[in-house]
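Weekly sync, protein design subgroup
Attendees: M.S., D.O., the rotation student, P.L. (late)

Item 1: inverse folding check
M.S. brought a backbone from last month's batch and wanted to see whether the design step gives back something sensible before we order anything. D.O. pointed out we never logged the input encoding, so this time it goes straight into the notes. C-alpha cells as presented (588 positions):
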C-alpha cells in the first residue's frame, strides 16, 4: 500500500507506469506553475513534479511540504526534459496525482545532505537524522556487508559461531573493566568482557575446533578517534594449529574481504619481526605505503665534538625526498612538532642535500661537508633531499622519529587513498617491563605462549633474559593501523601458572581469577591459538578513514557519553539500594 517501488529504482523503462513512492522530502523548489519535490529513501532520490494547471489543490499541498516530511505520492513515471546525469533516477520524474502526508517533521537542526553543517555533538544527539545522510548510511551498509562476508568465509572454513556471555569475571587485556553490580549477590560484581579470550580458549578445550564470533567488547579507557568504550571484534580461535596455519587462514579472510567488498586483490602479506619493525620504523605498526626507513648514524656522527650526538645512545635519521627546498619556517614547524610534549624530542637536526650538490645543515659548525656527505650517502639521499635526525635514549628516540616519519608522510602526501599495504608483525616480546610499578606486564595478554625455544628461559630470574623472551604473537597491520592481533596460547597448566607468577600474581590470586581456565587445562586441552580483528577499525581503514565513529550506528563521544539517550545517567535511590551501592551489603 505504501509503495510499489523505492526512490532509487525507476528508470526510462518504467515511463508510462503508475507508481507509488514513499519517503522523506529532501528539498522542494517552487516555480509557480511547477513545484518540484525531491523524495528520498535509503535507495536514492526521485523527483516528483506537481503542475499548477493540472491540479491547483495538489500543487498548493505540495508547496506546504517541509524538509523531512514523510509522504506518499502516487503518479505516472515520465521522461524528464531536463535530465540529471548525476542521479541514478535522473532520466525520469513522477507526475503526481495523489499526495498524502504520512507524518510532518520539525525543521531539522542541521542539513541532511552529504556535507552537513551540523557539529559533532549535535549530529550525535540527533543521530537518527545524521543516519539519514547518504555517506553515514553507506558506512553502515558497508559494515553490514563486511559482517556477512566474514561469516560466509569463516563458515566455509568450518568455523562455528558461538555466543559467549557478557556478564563475566574480569579478563585482563590491559584496560580497566566496566563492572555491573549483582543484585542477587550483594557486594559482588560482574565485569563486561574486554574480549571473550578465556571463553574461546575453553571452547577449544571443549572440542569446538574452530570458533568465531562478531562480538562486542568493553574497555574503560580514555577515548580517541579510533577508540570507543564498546567496540566490535571478529574473534576467532582454532585448535591443533601452528602460527603458520593461523596467519594463512586470516590472511585468506582479509584478502577475501578486500576482493568481495572492494574488488581489490591484495598480494601476499609481508612479515616482519617486532625487532625489525622497531629498528626500521620505530613502530610495531609501520605504515608501509611509503619508505623513509630509519638510518642509524652513531658511527659516522659521534666523536666529532658535537656533544648532543656524542652523549646520545642513538643518532638516527630519515631521508625525506624533495624537501631540501624547505624554508627556515617549515623546518621550525617540524622542530616544534617533535618538541611537543606528546612527542618530547629535545631538538631536530637537518642536513640538506642541495640541488647543486652542496650540503647545508644545522650542525655545520661541528661537521665538515665530507662528514655530512657520508651521512647522506648512507641514507641514499639524492640532491634535493633532506635528512632529518634525532638523537637521545634509544627506545624514546625511535618512537619520536616514528612520529616525525608519519608527519612527513602526511605532509608529502605519501599516504595515498586506495593504496593498501598489509603487514604481519610477528615475534613480539612476551613481557614488558614497567619502570613506574617495577614489574612485568604481558605485552599481549597473560595467555600468550612464549616461542617454543624460549619456554626454558622463563625459569630465569634475570630481568634481561626475561625481557628478551619472545612470544608466539602476531599483529596484522594495515596502512599503519593494527587491525588484528593474536597468539598461540599456553595450554599447559604449569606453564600458565609460571607465566602468571612472572606477571606478579601470587598462586592464590591466579587461582582465584583463572582457576577455571587452568582447571580446564588439566582435562585434555589441545594446542590452540587465535586472533581478533577490530571490526570497526577494519571498516574505517578499508574506507581510508581514521575515525571509527562513523562506522558505528550509535557511537559515544569523547567523554564516553551517548548524546542521544543521554547516558550514562544517575539511577533512582531505590535502584541503588537494591544493588547495595549506597549502603553496606548485609553481612552473610
Ligand atoms: N583477545 C585478544 C584481543 O582482544 C585477541 C586474541 O588474542 O585472540 O586483543
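Designed sequence read out in the meeting:
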Amino acid at each position: 500500500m505504501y509503495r510499489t517501488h523505492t526512490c532509487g529504482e525507476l528508470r526510462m523503462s518504467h515511463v508510462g507506469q503508475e507508481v507509488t513512492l514513499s519517503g522523506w522530502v529532501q528539498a522542494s523548489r517552487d516555480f509557480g506553475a511547477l513545484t518540484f519535490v525531491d523524495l528520498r529513501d535509503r535507495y536514492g532520490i526521485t523527483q516528483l513534479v506537481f503542475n499548477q494547471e493540472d491540479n491547483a489543490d495538489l500543487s498548493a499541498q505540495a508547496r506546504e511540504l517541509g524538509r523531512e516530511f514523510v509522504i506518499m505520492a502516487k503518479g505516472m513515471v515520465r521522461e524528464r526534459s531536463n535530465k540529471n546525469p548525476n542521479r541514478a533516477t535522473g532520466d525520469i520524474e513522477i507526475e503526481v496525482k495523489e499526495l498524502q502526508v504520512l507524518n510532518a517533521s520539525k525543521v531539522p537542526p542541521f542539513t541532511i545532505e552529504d556535507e552537513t553543517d551540523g557539529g559533532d555533538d549535535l549530529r550525535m544527539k540527533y543521530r537518527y537524522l545524521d543516519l539519514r545522510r547518504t555517506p553515514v548510511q553507506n558506512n553502515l551498509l558497508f559494515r553490514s556487508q563486511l559482517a556477512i562476508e566474514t561469516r560466509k568465509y569463516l563458515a566455509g572454513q568450518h568455523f562455528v559461531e558461538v555466543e559467549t556471555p557478557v556478564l563475566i569475571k574480569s579478563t585482563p587485556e590491559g584496560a580497566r573493566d566496566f563492572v555491573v553490580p549483582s543484585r542477587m549477590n550483594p557486594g559482588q560484581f560482574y565485569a563486561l568482557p574486554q574480549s571473550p579470550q578465556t571463553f574461546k580458549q575453553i571452547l577449544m578445550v571443549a572440542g569446538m575446533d574452530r570458533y568465531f564470533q562478531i562480538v562486542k567488547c568493553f574497555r574503560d579507557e580514555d577515548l580517541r578517534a579510533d577508540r570507543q568504550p564498546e567496540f566490535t571484534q571478529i574473534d576467532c580461535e582454532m585448535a591443533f594449529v601452528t602460527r603458520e596455519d593461523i596467519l594463512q587462514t586470516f590472511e585468506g579472510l582479509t584478502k577475501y574481504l578486500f576482493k568481495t567488498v572492494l574488488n581489490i586483490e591484495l598480494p601476499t602479506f609481508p612479515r616482519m619481526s617486532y625487532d625489525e619493525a622497531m629498528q626500521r620504523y620505530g613502530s610495531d605498526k609501520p605504515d608501509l605505503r611509503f619508505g623513509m626507513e630509519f638510518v642509524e648514524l652513531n658511527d659516522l656522527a659521534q666523536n666529532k665534538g658535537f656533544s648532543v650526538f656524542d652523549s646520545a645512545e642513538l643518532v638516527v635519521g630519515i631521508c625525506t625526498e624533495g624537501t631540501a627546498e624547505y624554508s627556515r619556517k617549515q623546518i621550525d614547524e617540524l622542530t616544534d612538532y617533535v618538541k611537543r610534549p606528546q612527542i618530547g624530542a629535545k631538538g631536530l637536526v637537518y642536513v640538506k642535500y642541495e640541488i647543486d650538490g652542496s650540503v647545508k645543515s644545522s650542525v655545520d659548525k661541528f661537521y665538515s661537508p665530507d662528514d655530512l656527505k657520508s651521512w647522506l650517502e648512507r641514507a641514499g639521499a639524492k640532491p634535493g633531499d633532506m635528512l632529518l635526525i634525532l638523537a637521545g635514549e634509544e627506545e624514546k628516540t625511535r618512537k619520536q622519529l616514528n612520529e616525525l616519519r608519519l608527519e612527513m608522510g602526511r605532509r608529502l602526501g605519501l599516504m595515498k587513498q586506495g593504496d593498501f599495504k598489509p603487514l604481519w608483525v610477528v615475534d613480539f616480546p612476551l613481557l614488558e617491563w614497567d619502570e613506574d610499578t617495577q614489574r612485568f606486564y604481558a605485552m599481549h595478554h597473560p595467555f600468550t605462549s612464549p616461542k617454543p625455544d624460549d619456554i626454558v628461559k622463563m625459569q630465569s630470574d634475570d630481568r634481561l633474559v626475561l625481557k628478551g623472551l619472545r612470544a608466539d604473537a602476531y599483529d596484522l597491520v594495515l596502512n599503519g593501523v593494527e587491525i588484528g592481533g593474536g597468539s598461540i596460547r599456553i595450554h599447559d597448566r604449569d606453564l600458565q601458572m609460571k607465566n602468571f607468577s612472572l606477571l606478579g600474581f601470587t598462586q592464590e590470586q591466579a587461582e582465584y581469577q583463572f582457576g577455571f581456565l587452568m582447571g580446564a587445562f588439566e582435562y585434555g586441552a589441545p594446542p590452540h591459538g587465535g586472533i581478533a580483528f577490530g571490526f570497526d577499525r577494519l571498516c574505517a581503514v578499508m574506507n581510508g578513514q581514521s575515525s571509527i565513529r562513523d562506522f558505528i550506528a550509535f557511537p559515544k563521544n569523547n567523554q564516553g557519553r551517548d548524546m542521544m539517550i543521554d547516558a550514562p545517567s544517575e539511577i533512582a535511590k531505590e535502584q541503588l539500594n537494591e544493588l547495595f551501592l549506597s549502603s553496606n551489603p548485609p553481612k552473610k
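Discussion: The two ends are 63 Å apart (CA to CA). The mean pLDDT is 96.
Action: P.L. to compare against the previous round before Friday.
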